[in-house]
Amino acid sequence: MNMMKHMHIVLFIVFLYTSNPSFSYANDICVAETNINTPSGYECKPQDKLTVDDFVFSGFVPGEIKKPFNVKLTVVSAEKLRGLNGLGLSAARVDIGINGTVAMHVHPDESELLMMVQGKVTAGFVTTEKAYVKDIKVGDVFVFPKGQLHFLINSGTEIAIAFVAYSSSTPTFQFLDDLLFGKNHLNTSIIAQTTFLDVAQIEKLKGRFGGSGSG
Amino acid sequence: MNMMKHMHIVLFIVFLYTSNPSFSYANDICVAETNINTPSGYECKPQDKLTVDDFVFSGFVPGEIKKPFNVKLTVVSAEKLRGLNGLGLSAARVDIGINGTVAMHVHPDESELLMMVQGKVTAGFVTTEKAYVKDIKVGDVFVFPKGQLHFLINSGTEIAIAFVAYSSSTPTFQFLDDLLFGKNHLNTSIIAQTTFLDVAQIEKLKGRFGGSGSG
Amino acid sequence: MNMMKHMHIVLFIVFLYTSNPSFSYANDICVAETNINTPSGYECKPQDKLTVDDFVFSGFVPGEIKKPFNVKLTVVSAEKLRGLNGLGLSAARVDIGINGTVAMHVHPDESELLMMVQGKVTAGFVTTEKAYVKDIKVGDVFVFPKGQLHFLINSGTEIAIAFVAYSSSTPTFQFLDDLLFGKNHLNTSIIAQTTFLDVAQIEKLKGRFGGSGSG
Amino acid sequence: MNMMKHMHIVLFIVFLYTSNPSFSYANDICVAETNINTPSGYECKPQDKLTVDDFVFSGFVPGEIKKPFNVKLTVVSAEKLRGLNGLGLSAARVDIGINGTVAMHVHPDESELLMMVQGKVTAGFVTTEKAYVKDIKVGDVFVFPKGQLHFLINSGTEIAIAFVAYSSSTPTFQFLDDLLFGKNHLNTSIIAQTTFLDVAQIEKLKGRFGGSGSG
Amino acid sequence: MNMMKHMHIVLFIVFLYTSNPSFSYANDICVAETNINTPSGYECKPQDKLTVDDFVFSGFVPGEIKKPFNVKLTVVSAEKLRGLNGLGLSAARVDIGINGTVAMHVHPDESELLMMVQGKVTAGFVTTEKAYVKDIKVGDVFVFPKGQLHFLINSGTEIAIAFVAYSSSTPTFQFLDDLLFGKNHLNTSIIAQTTFLDVAQIEKLKGRFGGSGSG
Amino acid sequence: MNMMKHMHIVLFIVFLYTSNPSFSYANDICVAETNINTPSGYECKPQDKLTVDDFVFSGFVPGEIKKPFNVKLTVVSAEKLRGLNGLGLSAARVDIGINGTVAMHVHPDESELLMMVQGKVTAGFVTTEKAYVKDIKVGDVFVFPKGQLHFLINSGTEIAIAFVAYSSSTPTFQFLDDLLFGKNHLNTSIIAQTTFLDVAQIEKLKGRFGGSGSG
Fold first, then answer.
1. How crowded is the C-beta side of D22, counted as CA atoms within 13 Å?
2. Which of E172, B140, F55, D4 is nearest to C61 (CA)?
3. How many Cβ atoms sit within 10 Å of the Cβ of residue F157?
4. From CA B190, how far away is CA C195, in angstroms rounded?
5. To which CATH superfamily is domain E1-171 assigned?
6. Which stretch of DSSP H or E encloses residue D165?
7. What does the pLDDT look like over A44-88, one tens digit per residue?
8. How many CB pairs lie under 8 A apart between chains B and D?
9. Which positions bind Mn(2+) (chains A, B, C, D, E, F) (predicted)?
10. Which end of chain C is more exposed for a tag (fewer CB within 10 A), N or C?
11. Choosing among A7, A16, A40, which should be mutated to test the E contact, i.e. which has the most E CBs within 10 A?
């Protein structure tokens, strides 16, 4: 390479753009616009409007761990960190107070990877054939495969903190108690017939989780 | 767990929602709005507008089996059962009258699973190397892999009924006779050159299937 | 096209194969060999070993509907219908006796499409925000989106029969009672802490569903 | 950055490998081993066995264009260019002699992008509603969407040459004449019933394309 | 098949459409409308508005090969050839003048398949463990796996021309010099700290590629 | 539900298994066997051999932060945490000493989500059009879209620790200095021609990163 070659390079860049006016340089980034949602994610923000703040979320901070579950769950999905859109990734910070529990739940379309930041938990998921349960501590990583019912219990003597990642940009949370006894008001007789729980047990938990729908 | 813990649970639920106002619980469901279509499917209906009827279709019913093919095909895709959107599933009810035929066709982007409900058919698909053909009856299931040319012939003595499932939410049907001789008006000389059919045969079938486009 | 051209065609076919000896004509079909399994499905059977029976399953037949659930479930996945491998489709026949129930369950990685063949059922799935429940009958189709907890109850006066399709070739079934109270032997205190069910209720259902694991 | 820092860098690299002995640097490349095939492609060759020749194919060369079709088709799929495995890409060189034709065919699971290198062709694909046909020449690019029946006809006065790309690493070719009249030996009465072609026409083309299977 | 049957076929077609008014025949084709973009691609143009020109691009033509790089790159993505939308394919024509170079670059989400049309190039991509470099000529095909840094150098004595295909419909180009020294104005001290290049070298190349951002 | 019904349930479970002997309950979990690798991941371990330790990794622990980069990178991919196989998730713990840097690199097939655990970093990625750079601290989350060149610099006064998640189960790391100047021994003249770096600069960095390959 001689020097003469290099002297023209800035000029070249200009020509390149002139001859390819609609050429898209960074189209594989699709930051969410929140007004239109599709099965693959939200509408893309135009590339020339992107800023670094589309890729940063600043809310993984301590906060009041509310009774009675003693849990604080901070989820960062494509709605809050718009740069996640279309990338198949999201995250959450979970703070579990002493004696606290992240109750039995399922993410219908996400696997979850849990990384302990502080404290100890008993983590587990259940399949029909086996219960996979283990006490984990700082330094441990635990994976919950997609669509499996799972839980966390603080098994230590301090607040437990974990960072978790999900394999979609818009994870959803279906807590078993909300599904069976919550404000979706699923009919008590249906619950009894399809779970074999006693009606008294169902009504008791509906009282706690906000459900009605007796019958 | 003691009773004191449980007494606070309803309160907790309220706090949870207050501190996460934009938290989406069921976003993996994307019921179709029909006005905007993308490669991954239609725009999602807002979650709070969903009803059970978005997940139900009531048209798998008997109907007049029209001559001359003696076939009635009832397709339920995301356009009709909007809850199918983005799920990679759809279905059809096929009624084939006596001597009826579902003629040679291809689904460009779907595999198909056929379950017999009544009667008997000869089902088959063809690859360059082998023809896979079998007489099937009530109790049988037949799979047609994606993009293969296939057919059904009523081989029994009553109306044959089958339920079929497709591996996309918007299946498409390309009947060979429509493609070659139908209202797309493909030029006769092109057909002759690319299929080696005789011109007389092409013109005869164009007369039957609505095609013109001689040349 | 004149006749001279056509006289040479058979000869051509021979040449084509000679010059492309490893050319695969039907490789998009990957019929399962059952010994090696991967995230995308089973190892493919060689194309020259395929027969039509790789694409047919003949077990969607009536059978004894066993008490106490009064349900008979016949699943056809890639293990039984090897042509399903890699196609993202499978199916089941469900027979539900009078008063029978397909109890609350989840398919961790499949959507489900239900087509009624005989009788009536109450079908439903539950999200945190709403319960989607409907009485459906012959002629109706119902879709259960991926990963949602759902159920069927025979609401008629005869055996109910449905054909269902799943959006994967190897569907899995996680019945809630098996998960919580079954032979996976999940510890009673964990169940109590993560579901808020009473210990007495848990022990009662463990007695019925085969679970032990007290503690 | 001062010089002292840099003096240790080679040492560092050694340490990095020592502390992460199983660390995989280039695992997203999965060059085909041909003995095990799965729905997602062939088994991967170990990374330390890869050479540049796994990524090069040298057969896009002129050759004898055989009568009677006057076509030479050179396909490069993952079987021949093993670095294509798992990448969703493959290619072909098509040479079409004067009056030659790439007859009506379908790729069951691939879209195709055609780039003219020499000469002129009439290219087209057909859907039920419309025939998309155009004369194209050097400088033109034509896309055939996945699973659509399509063809090429040399419409110029010299050999036409095109390079085509496919959206899978193992494209398959289903020529309509081979499917209907070829060595798969599909039964003549089935062809007649499902295509409405005359028996005489079918028998005539079976004579040319190697099919038997009368009945 | 007797003649009576055939006489009614045209009539049938009419009935078919009447009883299925919203039936979509070709929905697997999703030609881009350019106003709405999503992770899976652009909004679909309505099927009844499609023309053959949605599937043709006519710009793979010679043009002025600009100094100083001596390269002319003509990309055809879904923005220019709207029928590519959603199909996972696109292409480019690359003309490299004598002594010209397609400098080190990466396509963040695409594999690339290169087919030589004229001349000779040295092609290569680099992984941490090995550099895969080869002199290729007309008749050769080279595959660059997804996300790998790669380059082309004209190693012949005439203009080199290649056609390339990409495994997405909207490929993006990230040239290393543009990334490090270009108009994105990445801070010089950050470049120095994260690449170990000398500040003088960085400033020299920023002068050539348009970057500022010293610090 | 009356009591008589429940008394038979254990018996039912036995019958269910007897009548469906090959019924797979948890096949959507595909824990890696390390001997066979495919584009979709490793061969699955048989379900009856799974233990909870297939889903746990215990190595996210502090360790010696080696000079000269002052970085310790602990990656947990499907090779180490075999339950990750096929789930599209993996993770790493990154410890960056004072003045340390995670140098410019790219993951060819993964997006990355970074969650700060301790300290402060300057994080960034670069596209041709813009550099996205920000100082982030404990409580912040940063997303690097797939295939983009990116980096981290410890900008605080203590060791910085971050947990990161990747959108594949087998992430790969391509550090720019290793690619250009490392043990892959890319030829100096090729580097000069394709990056416009001065030969003296190239040779200097080859001395540091282990590369030879002059020419």
1. 9
2. B140
3. 9
4. 68
5. Jelly Rolls (2.60.120.10)
6. strand D160-166
7. 999 899 999 999 999 999 988 887 678 999 999 999 999 999 999
8. 141
9. 105, 107, 112, 150
10. C
11. A16
Q: Which two tokens stand for residue C157?
A: 């006066």
Query: Cβ A36–B40 below 8 Å, yes or no?
Result: no
* Residue C6: partners with Cβ closer than 8 Å, 6 or more residues away: B196, D68, D208
Residue C27, CA distances (Å) to D57, D91, D114 in order: 20, 16, 22
Cα separation of B57 and B55, whole Å? 7
Mind telling me how many Å the CA of A188 is from chain C's nearest CA?
Answer: 12
Which residue has better confidence, F22 or D80?
Answer: D80
- d(C-alpha C191, C-alpha C202), whole Å: 8
For the segment A134-143, what is each residue's pLDDT rounded down to a tens digit?
Answer: 999 999 999 9
- CB pair distance less than 8 Å for D38 and F37: no
Question: Reduced to 3 states, what is the DSSP secondary structure of residue C18?
Answer: helix
Name beta bridge partners: F118: F161
Beta strands at B112-118 and D112-118: parallel, antiparallel or unpaired: unpaired
E-state strands within chain E: 32-38, 41-44, 56-57, 71-76, 90-96, 101-106, 112-118, 120-126, 131-137, 141-144, 149-154, 160-166, 174-175
Bridge partners for E42 per DSSP = E37
> Is residue B48 exposed (0-12), middle (13-18) or buried (19+ Cβ within 10 Å)?
exposed
To the nearest whole Å, the CA of E167 is away from the closest chain B CA by 16
- Neighbours of D, requiring at least 3 CB pairs below 8 Å, are B, C, E, F
In chain E, which residue ranges form alpha helices assigned H by DSSP?
3-6, 9-19, 176-181, 188-195, 199-209
Domain boundaries, chain C: 70-172, 178-209
| Tokens read off for B121 | 């058919």
Phi, psi of B193 (to 5 degrees): -70, -30
Question: For residue C38, which residues of chain D lie inside 8 Å, CB to CB?
Answer: 38-40
Backbone CA torsion sign across D52, D55, D59, D61: negative
Complete DSSP assignment for F65-84:
-BTTTTEEEEEE-TTTSGGG
> Contact at 8 Å (CB) between A60 and F139?
yes
**Amino acid identity, residue C149?**
L
User: How far is residue B206 from each of residues B94, B174, B185, measured CA to CA in Å?
Assistant: 26, 16, 9
> Per the annotation, does C185 bind a ligand?
no
CATH class of residue range C70-172 = mainly beta
Kindly report, residue by residue over E170-214, the tens digit of the pLDDT. Answer: 999 999 999 999 999 899 999 999 999 999 999 999 999 998 755
Structure tokens at D133: 């046909």
